[in-house]
Amino acid sequence: MNSEEILELLKSVEGGKLTPEAAVERLKHLPFEDLDFAKVDHHRALRQGYAEVVFGKGKTPSQVAEIVRAMARHRESRQNILVTRADAKIFTAVRRVNRDAKLHPASGVITIERNKRITGKGTILIVSAGTSDTPVAEEALLTAQMMGNRVEHLYDVGVAGIHRLLEHRGMLIGARVIICIAGMEGALPSVVGGLVGVPVIAVPTSTGYGASFGGVAALLGMLNSCASNVTVVNIDNGFGAACVASCINRM
Q1: Residue extents of the structural domains in the chain
Q2: Which CATH number, 3.40.50.720, 3.40.50.1970, 3.30.460.10, 3.30.300.30, labels domain 123-250?
Q3: How would you write the chain as a 3-class SS string?
Q4: Least confident of 66-75, 154-163, 212-221
Q5: If pLDDT is split at 50, 70 and 90, which confidence band does 76 have?
Q6: Lowest model confidence (mean pLDDT) among 68-82, 131-145, 147-161
Q7: pLDDT mean over 6-19
Q8: Tell me, what's the pLDDT at 77?
Q9: Which of 177, 191, 179, 197 is nearest to 221 (CA)?
Q10: Quick one: pLDDT at residue 25?
Q11: CB-based contacts of 23: which residues, under 8 Å, 6+ apart?
Q12: What does each C-alpha distance from 23 to 48, 52, 108, 238 come to in angstroms?
């Protein structure tokens, strides 16, 4: 859809030929921007409530930078820009395109904050078992923040020292959605799920010794949780957990 077609659409609304709701439905399916190596979906936020996120791993620094450049050109949208699984080389390339870019080394996330508006109804609480799980927890925290949520966190409160978690029952009960991150045997989400009456999104991590099978042991443990309010995303997928939590928090 070009500018003339958009203008015609707006005139139809103005003249009463088209309802605002119908116009929004049409805008949801506007074309993407074709960069040859990538097709940037500028209207993801209109359809899903948050902008397209760039997965940095497997892309060259120049490719990520060009995608960010295309997204940043749409200033009127004021959507935050988020790059996950990035490294220092990708950050250097992105920083040349946008000086507001910030690298968060612990998680490998790059953020360009253009909108501080809170759209979530409550608080998303990030709970992680051990310090080794912090990179995944930070990815979830930053994603949730950039998607317009109030976010709090509890780190290093795993079942090996369960008293560290129980000391913060007020925070657990006060959250609207909880993202619970653990490696090893993945027991923490079941404990958290048994303490609260809200959705708990469990994230298995690849933290652990040989028999953890790179996070498969934690994944299977979480899938077999006896806490019925626990659901599970993929191994190390803090981003995916935050997306789901953000959707729940807007409902």
Answers
A1: 33-112, 123-250
A2: 3.40.50.1970
A3: CCHHHHHHHHHHHHCCCCCHHHHHHHHCCCCCEECCCCEECCCHHHHHCCCCCEECCCCCHHHHHHHHHHHHHCHHHCCCEEEECCCHHHHHHHHHHCCCCEEECCCCEEEECCCCCCCCCCEEEEEECCHHHHHHHHHHHHHHHHCCCEEEEECCCCHHHCHHHHCCHHHHHHCCEEEEEECCCCCHHHHHHHHCCCCEEEEECCCCCHHHHHHHHHHHHHHCCCCCCEEECCCCCHHHHHHHHHHHHHC
A4: 66-75
A5: low
A6: 68-82
A7: 88
A8: 60
A9: 191
A10: 77
A11: 9, 10, 12, 13
A12: 17, 22, 38, 35
